[in-house]
Amino acid sequence: MDHNLQYWKREGQSFFQRLFHWVDILDPSSLLASDGEIKNSRSLLESKEQTSKDELKVKEAWKLSLSSIHPDTGSVLPLVFRPPAFLPLAAPLVIATLLPHKGVKPALFWQILFQSYSAGFNYVNRNATSCKNERIPLKQVLLLVGSVSYATCAGVLPELAMNRYGLNSPAMQLLFRRIVPVPLFASLSALSVLVVRGEEFENGIEVMDSTGNVVGVSQTAGMKAVKETAMSRAALIGCTAAVPNVLVSFLQRTSFIKRSPLVLAPFRHITTALVLGLMIPISFSLFPQSGKVMKEDLEAHIQAATTEPELYYHRGL
Length: 317
What we know:
This protein is mostly helical. It has helices spanning 3-11, 15-25, 35-46, 55-68, 86-97, 104-124, 138-155, 157-165, 170-179, 181-196, 198-203, 219-251, 255-259, 264-285, 300-303, and strands at 205-208, 214-218, 290-294, 310-314.
């Protein structure tokens, strides 16, 4: 079992444990570390000569390893797809995507950027135990392109409907710009995870015993890992879209906004960024990184290969 998964198995079985660790791991300052520093942190964790004097160094090494190294491949993650980079890069894309656009073209542009980044993040941080080749297979490329294309087209439907049919009444504005985008964007975010990581429930992922030995490859565990990640992503984007709308609706009724309506737009943008920043560690913590599954829920060949009642898998992010 990889060192990162061992850490999550030991330290991340309760929600609040995971939340505490994610708040620390998502520190953007770790993005400044070079590949050499990241590899040195990995070497320190693998060293058996650690002393009490190294406690602070070990803590920093764990932080750097968990934020920068893929648990399955042991390779350094691309800078833009590391967990600490998610907020700085996704925040402007989410804010721009949720804007009340004046036409289909700007809505389409921001949807393409956001859905492309989301698909890339989902793929890079997947469970990679079923992928034996370093090169991306053609089927996976098609899934990535298809996921981005479908999510982009579906994401602009509210704007397209308003422009095509002239739905400019206050009721239609409320429906298509505040109500419909919440379940729509949440569903598209979950769908992106399901499509991009489809190989995990098609080919299966490795499951391990309590000592980290691989017992077998399970499609059931792959489906569980992908479903949990899809649910967490839907919660992240759904809450980020919903909460600012609710707050803005209340704020619009106040006399202050009636006197200064120009304050409303920056308030919406700031609130969206804050909610996204709060929801990222919460959504990442909803399910364990080192997932647990009962042996009797898995395939027959895996049940026959071990006597342990519980097995573990890497959920991905």
